[in-house]
Request: fold
Amino acid sequence: MILYMMIAQTQTEMTPERGMTTQEKPAFLRYLEEKAQKKIGRPHLVRKIGIEKTLMALRDIYVKGLKPPTVAKNYGIDYKSLWRFLKELEQNGYTDEIRDYFSRAEDISRYYDNHPIIKKWKERIIVSGSLSQLRHIQVMKKILTGQICPQFKCSPDEFDINKAQEFLLKCYENNIDVKHHYIMAIRHFLQIGKDIVIPRGLGGAYGLSGAKQSYGKYSHVRMSEEQIEKVKEYLRTHYRDEGYDLLFEFGIITCARAQAILTAPLNTIDLNFNTKIAITKVFESKVGKGDSYLWFKRGKWWVKYLPKDLAKRLIDFAKRKGHTKFIFVPDDIKPYQIKYEEIKKISKALREAYKYAGVIEPYFYKKPLHSLRHVGAIRWLEATNWNYALVAKIGGWLSVQTLMDCYGGIPQEVVINAVHKMFRSE
Reply:
């Protein structure tokens, strides 16, 4: 969590010995970033599929030797667009640089297991008797060879705390979720493999805290009404065509999880439920009940209540985009596209909006979409005078206790007001 508060400082302090500067970054990578950020004119292939997926496709072509038509099919890319992109790279003289870039990762991968530092690390784990720690070795291999973040590669010799911070920063910049076992592998490699001491209690200062994050710690995650309006304003201005402003509203009102929002069916919106209220349904696969929907084998349908005005705008948006099945995504969307493409694009837009709105709580930047569930929970609790049972039904929590522990503890002033009312009535 500390990482996100350190981003600006890390960016300004980064030096050649601490990490890769803009000048040191390969020219072709700067070219990809430029194309990914360009919003004028026809969207470039890199912007459509993202830098991470672009690098994976290039690696398949230049390292694995796969033919462009095969790669286009594997990644769901239009072949003509891919062909034009490869010609662009060739004309700009990036071909050799791309091969060199990927060859470094291949070299690290080839000698990794027999590298003296890795062998020493493995021997120390075996001697200690904690054989389960051997799993860290393969995780570090993925980190160092760019399998987790294609924009970061490093040899075991060069990897230190500064390089660890660079890896975390690159993941943040490219919307890659830093999982807990990545952090634990890095900590173990630095301390046991390289004898680099991380002072007890100070791991968080480097973005390397060993504490496993629990969602139960985040009942304080909330957003002011002013910030909510600023987020809407930013998304309407920059992502109106994508409908992200509507998705944000839908998320904080329904408290639905990310996949439930994106697979929300269009045909369940009922405008005739009430003069001011519309209802719809979303499918929550995480609750593990007996219903099924699309590619989800188990889950539960939840009724959601919407302002009629928002429901009408959702229907109008879907019609404008030519959607007939889902509200927010095309009818022919694939499961992997939702998980690896849509959520990544929306998360990027939300992070930008949170920054614009002055949101500083790190959780919003770590879990941009799930944060909407937190914001919605607090708003519903405040609107219902902290009626947990009612909000659990509205927002989709099977357990009132989960709602209390994880999303909204009762503020002290609410308790005091209730006590005052009780005393006045006696």
User: Anything to note?
Assistant: Residues 335-356 form the longest helix (22 residues). Residues 225-374 form a domain with the hpI Integrase; Chain A fold (CATH 1.10.443).
